[in-house]
Design brief:
Structural class: mainly alpha
Radius of gyration: 23 Å
Order of helices and strands: HHHHHHHHHHHHHEHEH
Number of helices: 15
Shape: globular
Length: 310
């Protein structure tokens, strides 16, 4: 079960078990030699949960003001939580290591590091010191280059309801050398009691399963993006089914009023910005002031494959 920042704010009872399972799985992964220490795992999980409460997100409802966390996409929010767990696990590993060192070695290490200890900086920059004045800055700093990888894993795991398509993608990842990513996907699915088909399972019509899976992955990646051009591209692809029924035989085109794209949080100005970017990149032939966008099968195929990292 997935969850969003909004779920945690307004439906904590329903979403907390999924949050806790995610944090616990991440904590066990990052704690390394301490992953089987239940107390250490609980410390990491509770630390993140307590901070979410302090920030007014977990169970905050309308009583607490909105923060930047509420405006993150689902993938960005998962990346934020992942980084929170990662940094706290680093802190616990460092503390464990320091406890095992002789005092003389520890003192020498502290003298040599001074105030430039990178681990100390990571821990401090993530949560700050009480009171934590700027959670927005911490949230934005936590959304790093890991976001796309986490988003890709999220979208691959969404294929669990189509086990043959999931196996086809995992097989492709392994073929391309992304064995670690494939292994992480399998581990995270097993953590929520979903077991993918074994690697040795024969797949009839492999290419067909792979093609269907890739189409779902592209749609998932686009739907999680907050990039205006990507959002507009996704909305335009929704008109694919209408192309054959509403296009003219002479042109093979479908005219989509740009006003129809103004919905679900996008203003007309934002739609126009997205259209300008798509036109600049050669995916559309749209001009400033045009009230419609002309689509054909070739353009729709390119739009369906369009993606840009934020």
């Amino acid at each position: 079960m997935s969850f969003t920042a909004r779920d945690l704010r307004y439906e904590p009872e329903k979403s907390f078990p999924a949050l806790e399972a995610f944090l616990r799985q991440r904590a066990q992964r990052y704690l390394g030699p301490l992953q089987y220490d239940a107390e250490e795992v609980d410390l990491v999980v509770n630390h993140v949960v307590e901070r979410l409460v302090a920030l007014g997100l977990l169970g905050g409802g309308d009583r607490q003001p909105e923060t930047v966390l509420d405006r993150l996409s689902e993938a960005q929010f998962y990346a934020f939580l992942n980084n929170c767990v990662h940094h706290k696990a680093i802190d616990r590993l460092r503390r464990q290591h320091r406890q095992m060192l002789p005092f003389s070695v520890l003192q020498e290490s502290e003298d040599s590091q001074g105030e430039a200890d990178p681990l100390g900086e990571i821990t401090t920059s993530l949560w700050g010191v009480p009171p934590f004045a700027h959670p927005e800055e911490a949230a934005l700093a936590a959304v790093t280059q890991q976001e796309l990888r986490i988003l890709l894993k999220h979208c691959i795991k969404a294929l669990a309801s189509a086990p043959r398509q999931l196996r086809a993608v995992l097989q492709e990842l392994e073929t391309l050398g992304a064995v670690d990513l494939a292994r992480q996907v399998v581990e995270e699915l097993q953590a929520i009691s979903i077991t993918p088909l074994p690697a040795e399972t024969p797949l009839a019509h492999l290419s067909q399963h792979r093609d269907h899976a890739y189409k779902k992955l592209r749609t998932c990646l686009q739907s999680q993006s907050s990039n205006l051009a990507v959002v507009v591209a996704l909305r335009l692809t929704e008109y694919e089914a209408l192309l054959s029924s509403r296009s003219t035989e002479a042109t093979g085109e479908l005219a989509v009023p740009i006003q129809d794209l103004v919905r679900q949080g996008l203003t007309l100005a934002e739609v126009q910005r997205g259209l300008r970017q798509l036109t600049f990149e050669g995916l559309l032939n749209w001009h400033e002031g045009d009230e419609v966008v002309h689509l054909d099968a070739a353009r729709l195929r390119r739009l369906a494959r369009y993606y840009r990292v934020e």
